[in-house]
Amino acid sequence: MEPLMQEFIKSTKDIQTFWENRFAQVMEEMVKSQNFVNAMTKSLEGSLDLRRLVDSSMGRWAEFYQVVTKKDLALIQQQMFDQGVRMEKMVTLLETIRDHVVTGTPRPAEPEAPKAARKTAGRGK
Questions:
Q1: Distance between CA 55 and CA 37 in Å, rounded?
Q2: Ramachandran class of 111: left when φ > 0, alpha when ψ lies in -120 to 50, beta otherwise
């Protein structure tokens, strides 16, 4: 009985292997065809169009109901980061001025402004 069962299992594995290989061949041929590429391209374009439609609809909905969106939060985060950078520059400048006042050393000469800035400054006078 055992040899019969082993033969049955072997034949089942052979059949499974045959169909797996055949399916792989058919899929490979199908994927290489131009029709498949065209169908996938249309499907992806449709998905992208749907995504744009959903994004615009959600944006209009959020604006109508005055709901905060991810884009709003990202904009606020960027503004806070920019403000933080400006504050760091101001702190550095104030520390430099304080050090010069405390030590009594003259303040270093300011770098020359670009020509466009000098022209603008000259117009205001």
A1: 27
A2: beta
Write the CB contacts of 61 (distance below 8 Å, at least 6 apart in sequence): 67
**100 Cβ contact partners less than 8 Å away, ≥ 6 residues apart:** 106, 107
C-beta of residue 107 within 8 angstroms of C-beta of residue 97: yes
Tell me what pLDDT residue 112 has: 61
Global pTM value: 0.40
Phi, psi (rounded to 5 degrees) for 8: -65, -45
The conformation of residue 114, written as its DSSP 8-state character, comes to P
- The token pair at 89 is 């520059």
Question: What would the pLDDT profile of 45-97 be if each residue is shown by its tens digit?
Answer: 999 999 999 989 988 998 899 888 888 899 999 999 999 999 999 999 999 99
With beta carbons less than 8 A apart as the criterion, state whether 100 and 106 touch.
yes
